[in-house]
Amino acid sequence: MNSYSLQMQPPQLIELSQLHQPNVVSTGLRLSFGGDQQQYQNQNLQNQQQHQHQQRQQNLVPSSTLFLSVVSDELATQIKSQREELDQFLQAQGKELRRTLAEKRNRHYHALLAAAEESVARRLREKEAEVEKATRRNAELEARAAQLSVEVQVWQAKARAQEATATSLQAQLQQAMIGCGAAAVTQDSRRGEEGIEGQAEDAESAYVDPERMVSSGPSCKACRTRVASVVLLPCRHLCLCTECDRVAQACPLCLAVRNSSVEVFLS
Ligand SMILES: [Zn+2]
Ligand SMILES: [Zn+2]
């Protein structure tokens, strides 16, 4: 058994050692056999080794060629399998890459869409605020217009009332002037009847105010010098000149509080 194992093991070791590291393994063999085995066995082994060495020399070339072919076949299959693995790996990587790219693209589109929606919503909110503001402003303007139309109606009513007042005042003035003219006529006729006796009285009253000479009509009841040409409201007395009208607070005839006044033209 031992010899058989010794016979069988060295060829493998030496064969491998010759392929890779011949010096180290051969030295180790020589040491191990020299220390452990007997001289006879050593000689026998040496003989066997020589014999085997000759056989190896004869069988070395074909076995190495066979081994190389086997190795090359194994290498080819390994290369083939590795190439297939590489192809699968590359395909898987490409698939993964495409999937990742698609996901990133989708995310990018979603982000873009979200940003666009947000900006559109913001602009919509701004426009709604503007519309609301414009509506409020429009309502304010409409309210202002309604108020102005009411004021216009009020002023028109006031103007109509003033016109009516002025018309009635004109009628009263005409009646008063007619009455004054009639009184003057009767006074003149009476004076004509009195004759010479009345001349002295006429001479006494010959002096008249110069302002009163240039204009005719009732005199102002406040200053008693200028002609009364202002009608006070609401009592409607024609009793003040324009100068006294500026400072008068009440009517000098009836003492009614002055509300407003209207200047009239007698001719
Ligand atoms: Zn006056
Ligand atoms: Zn009055």
What are the salient characteristics of this protein?
6 helices; 267 residues; binds zinc ion; 4% strand; single chain; 3-stranded antiparallel β-sheet; mainly alpha; Herpes Virus-1; disordered N terminus
Distance between the termini: 170 Å
Counting H and I runs of at least 4 residues, what is the number of helices? 6
Alpha-beta content class:
mainly alpha
Q: How large is the radius of gyration?
A: 72 Å
**Spans where pLDDT lies below 50 across 5 or more residues:** 1-14, 19-37, 195-206, 208-214
Mean pLDDT figure: 76
Q: What is the subunit organization of this protein?
A: single chain
Q: Could you give a short description of this structure?
A:
This protein has 267 residues and is mainly alpha-helical. 77% of the residues lie in helices and 4% in strands.
Describe the structure.
The chain has 267 residues and is mainly alpha-helical. Among the domains are: 98-181; 215-267, Herpes Virus-1 (2-Layer Sandwich), CATH 3.30.40.10. The chain has helices at residues 2-19, 22-36, 39-194, 197-204, 210-214, 242-245, and strands at 230-233, 238-240, 260-263. Strands 2-1-3 form a 3-stranded antiparallel beta sheet. Helix 1 (2-19) runs antiparallel to helix 2 (22-36). The radius of gyration is 72 Å and the shape is rod-shaped. Mean pLDDT is 76; it is low at 1-14, 19-37, 195-206 and 208-214. It binds zinc ion (ZN) (2 copies). One zinc ion binds at residues 220, 222-223, 226, 240-241, 243-244. Residues 220, 222-223, 226, 240-241, 243-244 line the site of one zinc ion. This is RING-type domain-containing protein. GO terms for molecular function: ubiquitin-protein transferase activity; zinc ion binding. Residues 220-254 form the RING-type domain.
